[in-house]
Amino acid sequence: xxxxxxxxxxxxxxxxxxxxxxxxxxxxxxxxxxxxxxxxxxxxxxxxxxxxxxxxxxxxxxxxxxxxxxxxxxxxxxxxxxxxxxxxxxxxxxxxxxxxxxxxxxxxxxxxxxxxxxxxxxxxxxxxxxxxxxxxxxxxxxxxxxxxxxxxxxxxxxxxxxxxxxxxxxxxxxxxxxxxxxxxxxxxxxxxxxxxxxxxxxxxxxxxxxxxxxxxxxxxxxxxxxxxxxxxxxxxxxxxxxxxxxxxxxxxxxxxxxxxxxxxxxxxxxxxxxxxxxxxxxxxxxxxxxxxxxxxxxxxxxxxxxxxxxxx
Length: 312
Prior knowledge:
About 35% of the residues lie in helices and about 15% in strands. The chain contains 11 helices and 12 strands. The strands form 3 sheets. Strands 3-4-5-6-9-10-11-12 form an 8-stranded parallel β-sheet. It has a two-stranded antiparallel sheet with strand order 1-2. The protein is globular, with a radius of gyration of 19 Å. This is NADP-dependent oxidoreductase domain-containing protein. It comes from Kwoniella dendrophila CBS 6074.
């Protein structure tokens, strides 16, 4: 059997080529992350995904430096946090991220949520939403592109209505929308909309629930144990996790598997291009089963998610 492989890069509207597989850095402790980033780059990753709220941008940048690979060959994504949505704070937040990363530009800068919140001195989110339109915050992010601090800007965790509002009120269109996506959250209608307007989707949490603390609130079986996923793993001689990563790539998304374990980091690069029948087999096996694992509305104080009842 000849195995096809998905595209290695996504061409964004700017003409920049974003690597289609990135190392996710959420919940990674700084010291472990530095080692993970350096190792990931060593074994072939060229896209590292961070965020201000992760608290590890400095460690991410140090991992890049320890890798010994020229910065121009590495794609860095990071994100603007909710407490810096005031237009006057946006440029300062961008420069702070650059300083922590030790870089002179960011390849892709995302608005983490379309919600502005206040914070306390310990940087813990208060459940207080500020009346700052995300469209105003976006205009300040556009200024960062024009100042050469950022090459591409995008969004994360937006609803369709919010995407539409921003899309119709901006100088620079979002290049990427990063959102939770896996077989229990395919968001088919929303994905179709993205394709229609030409907005690329990056999938995070492609393996579904991998957090043991969620087990008591998750009635669904782990997606890696799904019969269709395991059958495809056997068919292609890859792991169930690699099937799920391959699924996102095969459906046109870029994807951000997360790990600090060297063996898993390397394993996650073993991807294949699934056929339409392969994809259908997973969809059929999860029909009517829906779950979201990254809903932090209570912490943020803003109901940002729509689509949980997305039709099959």
